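Lecture 7 notes: from sequence to structure.

We start with a single chain of 226 residues. Read the sequence below before looking at the structure.
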Amino acid sequence: MNNIETFSNIPHILANGTEWYLGLSACVDGGTKLYGVSGRAKRPGVFELPLGTSLGVILNECAGGMQDGYKLRAFLPGGASTAFLGAEHADIIMDYPTPEKAGSRLGTGLAILLDDKTSPIGMIRNLEHFFAQESCGWCTPCRDGLPWVERLLIAIEEGRGTPEDIERLHDAARLIGPMGRTFCAHAPGAIAPLASGLKMFAEDFQRMVSKSTPGTVESGAAGQAA
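Now the structure, written as tokens:
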């Protein structure tokens, strides 16, 4: 991976050797990792720690735990393009294989927290807005599909959604999510929080739709984009 975190390790490995580098880690993979915490933590930030440090240590010892009056409901362990894990995984080891076994990825190592007072639909909508804005526009599933997903989430969040819109979101997750259907990994990454959120927060989606009045979401435009 040609990124600054990788490049910054190279001179230290050359100067000190591979055994030294492996010894810095808390797991079989060597070195340290830049871990981050964002959301309702007392001290959100970025912390350099041995690779394989648990999320419990990162959140509670480095980031000070959850803010008073808030509880951890779920989190994205590796940044915006990873799948949600529930609070039962709050002590997960943040190495490469462990989050994958739990159904997500280490990704960037940035844990984005969802607290018990924040709407998961609003959080997912905010993420999809970011990904829609960041699309380069080269391929149709990403260029047209992500704005469509955002529109559906806005409709549900604003009380204009229908049960069919939830099904459309499931369709988007099924059609856009798999790797190999777009020119790069941007769209599949964008779908990861949506697909996992539709499963984990199904009751939230159904509750929002049950409060909705029928029929004002952009069904025609969504169908054309699909």
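Residues 75 and 85 are 6 Å apart (CA to CA). Keep this in mind for problem set 3.
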